[in-house]
Amino acid sequence: MSTSGRLVTRNYSQFRGVDFSNRKDEINIYRSPDALNVWKNYKSSNGKCIETRPDVELLGEFSSPIYGLFFYGNDVIVHSGTKLFNGISEATATELYDGLAEQKSNFFIFKSKLYIHDGEHYLVMDGTVQEVTGYIPRTSISRSPSGGGTTYEDVNLIQPYRKNSFSADGTSTVYQLDVKEFDNEAPRVWVNDTELTSGFSYDYTNGTVTFTTAPSEPDTVGQDNVIIQFKKTVEGYANEILHCRLIEVFDNRVFASGNPDNPNYLWHCSLDDPTYWSDLDYYQEGEEDSAVTSLVSGNNALWVLKEPSKSNTTIFYHNPTIDSNYGKIYPSSHSSITTGCKYKGINFKDTICFYSENGLEAITSDITTEQTLTHKSSLVDTRLLNENLDNMNLLVWEDYLVTILGNKVYLANSREFSEINGHYEYEWYYWEFSQSISGGVVDHYSEGDSNGMLVLMTQEVTNQGTKYRFYGLKPLKGGGNVEAYWTTLADEFGYPQYQKITNKKGCVVDMEGKEVTLYAKTDNKSFDLIKKYTNVKGYVVPRIKKKKWKSIQLRFYSKKPFCLYSSTLESYIGSYIKR
Q1: Which residues of 352-366 are buried (b: 16+ CB within 10 A; e: fewer)?
Q2: Each residue's pLDDT tens digit, 255-284
């Protein structure tokens, strides 16, 4: 049967996203090799079409660099320069604190209080903002005046004070603390629950407190009735926690890592108490030759992701375990994965994902079995891996994994997967902005919306100097002038060896938009204007007259919000292509 003269219909619909890999798969009829600023908005159309991304709305600006933003109930907490503000614009914001480090800060909520950690300071907001007052542990109990007793609580790294409790014998006046010396600062002393303001002296070089009159014996034999609080500074202890750059809340504890001085250390606070960091509650994750780059909680584990290592020990995880002697502990387990997390990791819809040198990876299989790694970004790697990945921002918004790289944004869709190279990968979209984006955060409190507004931070040079601005994106808001387009694949209609001729009455497009322009391109030629449509809602029938072509592409372009549901194109098969 002759092929020449056969009419072939192509239907471009059920769009999946972009494919920058130049692959020739038949499924690419649903993808675009070149699309900009479009996505699937599942709130407006339930994913039935692709449409223009939301435009940005200026929310506020500051005069100093922005290092952090957090939405705390009805408050908007901003770290700008050395200051902490409540308010999204400096002109109307309330200054809460001055003295922060000029570097990225971490925010987390614990028992309704907001904690701020900037790599140098550790603050808490509970009505007002103040330095965290660390829990003062009782390091020894049941001591006699001469010493002994029982070790009770560990030293707290983030503050230098400790307590010893004694059972008085009624005759001794000299009480030996559990350190040989302490700081030259007067101790605080309680006898029978009453704090003394006089009647004792101290010898900090020998670690003793001497009473003018010997404390009486307790009413109950063996009961501690003397408490001495003293200061014992250990060089570098506080910095073990303060200099950490990675913070993650997991299992009612706060975990910290990313200290440049101890790049493979992981610390955690005491249960339900982020003010108490025991000097013994730490783990060494593999070798020092690779630093921890991300902490991610998920699948009932804390994942510790490290940069590539010569020893291939890069991914660790911690499961809560009950120990008969120490209570709940978090033993470190080395996963079977050897690929390192070069950049950042995140929990994306209950999947642990991270960026390696090769792109986005996902940890799959049950945590109790041998873990495997699945690549997830093949469709965009040719562009994504040429970006500067060192300063990426990673967040989850509207069920997309949003990767921000300067003014470029790559969105992985959690709702759609395709089998590529024998495994399932995410579908992707690609956006660009006019300004470089320094950071992003999701406002989960916005108008009661569980997904919330995506807030982007930029640095812009204006006539009034450099301004640091916040912009918001919110689905269903629409409006604005966003340049957006969708280009179909270079379609050979399943007959690469034949010339084709379009059926000039055989193109039908289902779309909506105030202003949408259709272009067509054959082979290696330029795009030709077909027609500009205004106030269109529904089907239009473009007349595309193209002859003797091998492949054809359509491009739908607009600077106004538009939606594209489907497009049908008919072509006749001609003769063989001449070589």
Answers
A1: bbbbbeebbbbbeee
A2: 999 999 999 999 999 999 999 999 999 999
What predicted TM-score, i.e. pTM, was given to this entire model?
Answer: 0.93
User: How many CB atoms are located within 10 Å of the residue 483 CB?
Assistant: 13
Strand (E) or helix (H) holding 384: helix 381-384
Round the CA-based radius of gyration of the chain to a whole number and report it.
32
Per-residue confidence (pLDDT) for residue 450, from 0 to 100:
45
Of 341, 367, 369, give the one whose Cα is nearest residue 356: 341
Give the separation between CA 147 and CA 166, rounded to whole angstroms: 9
Instruction: Report the percent of the chain where pLDDT is more than 70.
Output: 96
pLDDT higher than threshold 60 for residue 408: yes
List the one residue out of 161, 98, 169, 165 whose CA is nearest residue 129.
98
Give the span between the Cα atoms of 109 and 35, in whole angstroms. 39
List the domains of the chain with CATH numbers: 7-53+482-576 (2.60.120), 138-231 (no CATH)
Q: Are 345 and 335 in contact (CB under 8 A)?
A: no
Contact at 8 Å (CB) between 327 and 317? no
Query: Taking 70 as the threshold, does the pLDDT of residue 477 lie above it?
Result: no
The torsion region of residue 139 among left (phi > 0), alpha (psi -120 to 50) and beta comes to alpha
Burial state string for 325-335 with b = 16 or more CB within 10 A and e = fewer than 16: eeeeebeeeeb
CA 299/CA 366 separation, integer angstroms: 9
DSSP labels, 246-264? EEEEETTEEEEE-BTTBTT
User: CB of 352 within 8 A of CB of 363?
Assistant: yes
- What are 517-530's pLDDT values in tens digits? 999 999 999 999 99
**Mean pLDDT in the chain?**
93
Cβ-contact 411, 431 below 8 angstroms: yes
Question: Please, which residues have CB within 8 angstroms of residue 366's CB and are 6 or more apart in sequence?
Answer: none
Under 8 Å between Cβ of 358 and 372: no
Residues 551 and 491: beta-carbon distance below 8 Å: yes
Do the beta carbons of residue 527 and residue 519 sit within 8 Å?
yes
Q: What is the pLDDT of residues 190-213, one digit of tens each?
A: 999 999 999 999 999 999 999 999
